[in-house]
Amino acid sequence: MRRATITGWGKCVPPAVLTNADLETLMDTSDEWITSRSGIKERRITHVENSDMAVVAASHALASAGLTDDDIDTVIVATCTPDRVIPATATFVQEKMGLRNAACYDINAACSGFVYGLHLANSLIATQAAHRVLLIGSEKLSVLIDIEDRSTAVLFGDGAGAVVLEATEGTDGVLASNMGSDGQLARALTAPGLGSEEDVPVDEAGRVYMDGREVFRNAVVQMGSAALAAVTDAGLELEDIDLLIPHQANVRIIDATARRMDLSPEKVFMNIASYGNTSAASIPIALTEALEEGRIDPGDNVVFVAFGGGLTWAAATLAWGERVEPIGRSDAALPPTDSTAVELLTKRQKTRLRGTAE
Ligand code: UT7
Question: Would the CB of 248 count as within 6 Å of ligand 1?
Fold first, then answer.
């Protein structure tokens, strides 16, 4: 049966690091609170645009697959922080990389975006509507951070991850995937004032709001159910799973999901301490690091599961192929910066406040 398999992978994490100690200088919080409630120690703050991070991650993914930009027929960017409302960030990626033969568009399922994108890419490849898809999860969440709201400001970070998906008729590839959402909770995690909605109070515009407890409660339930369904639908048993790569939002949510799946800690990949919640970028960044660290062997069964604004959720089970090393390497990198993460964040805060004062 024809389906999609991952043949290339890559990531881009911006150089400026925002530690919990930095946050203590900006707001009434503590390393102890952030670590015990979320598991986050530091996160990255970008000095460039979302599409610039996407391009670096995508360049590594293409080299890893041994392909050139002309080989790609579809570019999907999963993001809730696009460079602009029009055009799609995927077309800025095309502008910067070439990709002359590709159709380009974005999808927004917030933190579930990458797994939604995987489901979509697999469907396109299975039906021969696409042959080689570049799927990128990329986020510049720092533009939505309000340093006066400590309940959200400590959680989010910037970054990008990308995969190349190609057709296979073998035993590898996406074995099963599912997606879901509950629009009754659409306002539990939201960033108003950046779309076409009118009459948004100016002091509420352009920043993220979250009912953390509501999101947490639902995340624990839906991530577990979605992941279990993806395993069952793949015709596998829980003991067949070699690695779970969950969305990195909160170490307590990840632990609860792993318990529900009866997985031991060594079968769960976590890098939340280093990057915080990077929304649609978190799973492809984690996948790339899992491969770099030798956590995936040929033929392994890998499960992705995510949860986020919408509220949305999604899971997928993949059988990894024979290759766990990149075919080629790219030297793509972001330009250096002299700005610290605190400087970048406070500058963004001033820009937003200026915008709301106008
Ligand atoms: O990517 C997908 C979407 N996001 C998520 O999955 C996130 C889901 N939610 C969560 O991860 C957790 O709800 C949080 C980490 C956001 C919060 O953890 P919590 O255990 O649910 O804390 P809480 O919201 O119940 O707040 C507990 C206390 C409050 O004080 P009072 O009212 O009990 O006196 C908050 O004001 O902690 C206080 N608080 C803080 N204290 C220090 C909230 N934020 C902070 C902070 N530093 N940064």
Answer: no
Domain boundaries, the chain: 1-324+336-352
> Half-sphere exposure (CA, 13 Å, Cβ side) for 270?
20
Residue 139: in which H helix or E strand, if any?
Answer: strand 132-139
Give the C-alpha separation, 296 to 8, whole Å: 14
What is the identity of the amino acid at 171? Answer: T
pLDDT in tens, the chain (358 residues): 999 999 999 999 999 999 999 999 999 999 999 999 999 999 999 999 999 999 999 999 999 999 999 999 999 999 999 999 999 999 999 999 999 999 999 999 999 999 999 999 999 999 999 999 999 999 999 999 999 999 999 999 999 999 999 999 999 999 999 999 999 999 999 999 999 999 998 888 999 999 999 999 999 999 999 999 999 999 999 999 999 999 999 999 999 999 999 999 999 999 999 999 999 999 999 999 999 999 999 999 999 999 999 999 999 999 999 999 999 999 999 999 999 999 999 999 988 776 655 5
- Give, in degrees to the nearest 5, the angle at Cα 96 between 50 and 133: 80
pTM: 0.97
The catalytic residues are: 111, 247, 277
* Domain 1-324+336-352 bears CATH identifier 1.10.10.60: no
Q: How far apart are CA 49 and CA 96, in angstroms?
A: 12
| Ligand 1 pocket test, candidate residues 37, 41, 250, most atoms within 8 A of CB | 37
